[in-house]
């Protein structure tokens, strides 16, 4: 093999160059960076460690090009590597759940803004918890809080439980398999949800990374994208503790319709916060009587 020594080792540079070209040919936006991330994953190092690497053995070379092939087919990097960062946490990922996204960190920022006193939050509920990212990020900031994550997909609930243990927060939360509001008798200081909110007709137009790989049940919000919010806002008055707040993620263009549903359910809108791209992303609510 070109570039290989007598022991079958190769230097990383040519491998990265070839991987970059394959990803570029697949139409990916950042082919060199993604090639480096994939090689770092295969070699079990970080990007800094990759720079110091002198050679790559044949098994690692094959694993690298296998990963490049998966990424060229638009499989998300987080599914290939099996983990993703969110807030200050490193979380396990799988096709059972959506991949945690920086946009969703807006919900944690909103919570910190409205509840700056770290002793003010004692209980957190996350409806449709997925990887557990929102619940676990909140617990990492509020040391006295306990949390409950609920997901209708058994594999997602199990993944969230593994992430709780992975982050050292397993003793402070429970992750259960169930519908959003079934058998929940307690009231909570904070209720999170990042529900399905993509209008059904928009699903075919999503990027192939999302459309072809992430779970449709976590994306499809019904004909107008608001089905989940109708259910969730109706349930909130019985889930919120006195003075408690709910923080929901919304999609593009939903900053009017979703708050309207909340008001119809007897909730007061406290804030609508934008993500780093300036898109309204987090809606904060509380009971009007609080």
UniProtKB/TrEMBL annotation:
Keyword Transferase (UniProt): yes
Class of the enzyme per the UniProt entry, highest EC level: transferase
Reactions it catalyzes: L-glutaminyl-[peptide chain release factor] + S-adenosyl-L-methionine = N(5)-methyl-L-glutaminyl-[peptide chain release factor] + S-adenosyl-L-homocysteine + H(+)
Gene Ontology MF terms in the entry: nucleic acid binding; peptide chain release factor N(5)-glutamine methyltransferase activity
Keyword Cytoplasm among UniProt keywords: no
Domain named Methyltransferase small: residues: 110-197
Gene Ontology biological process terms in this record: methylation
EC assignment: 2.1.1.297
Stored InterPro entries: DNA_methylase_N6_adenine_CS (IPR002052), HemK-like (IPR004556), N5-glutamine_MTase (IPR050320), PrmC_N (IPR040758), RF_methyltr_PrmC (IPR019874), SAM-dependent_MTases_sf (IPR029063), Small_mtfrase_dom (IPR007848)
Keywords attached to this entry: Methyltransferase, S-adenosyl-L-methionine, Transferase
Binding-site list for S-adenosyl-L-methionine: 128-132, 151, 180, 194
Chain positions recorded as substrate binding sites: 194-197
Record-annotated Release factor glutamine methyltransferase N-terminal domain positions: 15-82
Family per similarity comment: Belongs to the protein N5-glutamine methyltransferase family. PrmC subfamily.
Biological function: Methylates the class 1 translation termination release factors RF1/PrfA and RF2/PrfB on the glutamine residue of the universally conserved GGQ motif.
HAMAP family on file: RF_methyltr_PrmC
Protein name per the record: Release factor glutamine methyltransferase
Taxonomic source organism: Gluconacetobacter azotocaptans
Gene: prmC
């Amino acid at each position: 093999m070109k570039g290989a020594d007598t022991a079958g080792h190769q230097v990383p540079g040519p491998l990265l160059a070839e991987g970059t070209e394959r990803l570029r040919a697949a139409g990916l936006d950042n082919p060199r960076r993604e090639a480096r991330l994939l090689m770092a994953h295969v070699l079990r190092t970080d990007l800094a460690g990759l720079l110091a690497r002198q050679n790559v053995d044949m098994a690692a070379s094959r694993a690298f090009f296998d990963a490049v092939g998966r990424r060229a087919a638009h499989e998300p990097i987080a599914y290939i590597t099996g983990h993703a960062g969110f807030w200050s946490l490193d979380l396990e990922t799988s096709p059972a759940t959506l991949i945690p996204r920086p946009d969703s960190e807006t919900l944690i920022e909103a919570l910190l803004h409205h509840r700056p006193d770290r002793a003010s939050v004692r209980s957190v509920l996350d409806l449709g918890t997925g990887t557990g990212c929102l619940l676990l990020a909140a617990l990492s900031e509020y040391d006295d809080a306990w949390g409950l994550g609920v997901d209708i997909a058994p594999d997602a609930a199990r993944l969230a439980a593994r992430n709780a243990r992975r982050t050292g927060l397993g003793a402070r939360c429970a992750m259960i398999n169930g519908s959003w509001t079934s058998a929940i008798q307690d009231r909570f200081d904070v209720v999170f949800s990042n529900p399905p909110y993509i209008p059904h007709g928009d699903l075919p137009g999503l990027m192939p990374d999302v459309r072809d790989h992430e779970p449709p049940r976590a994306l499809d919000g019904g004909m107008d994208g608001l089905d989940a919010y109708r259910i969730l806002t109706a349930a909130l008055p019985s889930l919120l503790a006195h003075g408690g707040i709910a923080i929901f993620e919304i999609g593009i263009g939903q900053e009017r319709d979703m708050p309207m549903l909340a008001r119809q359910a007897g909730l007061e809108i406290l804030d609508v916060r934008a993500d780093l791209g300036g898109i309204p992303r987090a809606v904060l609510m509380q009971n009007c009587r609080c």
